[in-house]
Structure formats: structure tokens, C-alpha cells
Amino acid sequence: MQAWGTTVVTLAMLMAAPVDAKIYERCDLAMKLEEAGLNGFKGYTIGDWLCVAHYESGFDTSFVDHNLDGSSEYGIFQLNSAWWCDNGVTPTQNLCHMECHELLNRHILDDIMCAKRVVSSQSGMSAWDSWSRHCSGHDLSEWLKGCHMYAKPYTTKIYS
Fold first, then answer.
1. What is the spatial distance between Cα 89 and Cα 17, in angstroms, rounded to a whole number?
2. Is 56 a catalytic residue?
3. Largest CB tally within 10 Å, which of 11, 16, 17, 154?
4. Residues 6+ apart with CB under 8 A from 159
């Protein structure tokens, strides 16, 4: 009976959260990411961040994906409930000290702060399989085409 109650609460939270969701346009998201100081953060460009967000969520802040191990991934950067946030269901490290549903709205500063923690970990952007498959080693300047930004398309990667 308790599992049913947990399921109902989780579903209610997920249904309520997307009310304030947003699917970002590429250039709008690029400007948000640049304003948040991501260009050059740990050696990655805005192109890296846009590429990850595109392949992870299609720039959709309300996107949730469920994994076979029982964990789920949340928001524009698909941050995993086993490591980065607490969804009230999955055992978690909660390294970003937040509830997963907070990643599902249009206000992405908390997503960005958590994603910075991910990139600051030993794996860097390799923590996202999509970055390794679709972004790493590719010309990412296309992600900024037509955005009228000052962000440099290329920087030197810093691996720590």
C-alpha cells in the first residue's frame, strides 16, 4: 500500500511540475548559458552545452527519462536521480542537494549549477554519453550560428 502512495505522490509531482516548463529555442538557451558563465567553464564551450542539452532533452526543461536501474533523469540536462537530485523514490547521493522536480521548470539556473557540479567531477562532460557520442571531437560552432553572441566557438579543453 505504501508503494502505491509513493507512486501517486511522485506522479502528482511530475504532473504539476511541467506547468512552468519551457522548450527553449537554441539561441535563447545559448544566451542563458552564456549569462550563467558556462562559456569556457572547465574548458567547455556554449556549443558543448547546447549539444548536450539538445541530445539529452531537445531543450525541454520538463523532460523526464526512466532508466532500467530504477533511476530517472530530469530536466534540460537530464540529471540522474541516483547521483544528482532526490526524487523521493530512488536511493540517491543527491550531490546537488535538491529535489529532482526542481529541474523541470523554465528557471534553469539550478539546472546549470548542478550541471557545473557534474562537469567539475572527474568525468567532465563525458558524464553524458550523448556528449561522447555526438559532441566530443565535432565542430560545435554550428550550434551558435545565427545567435548573434560574443561566445567563442572554440576553447582549449581543460581536463583535471
1. 17
2. yes
3. 17
4. 43, 124
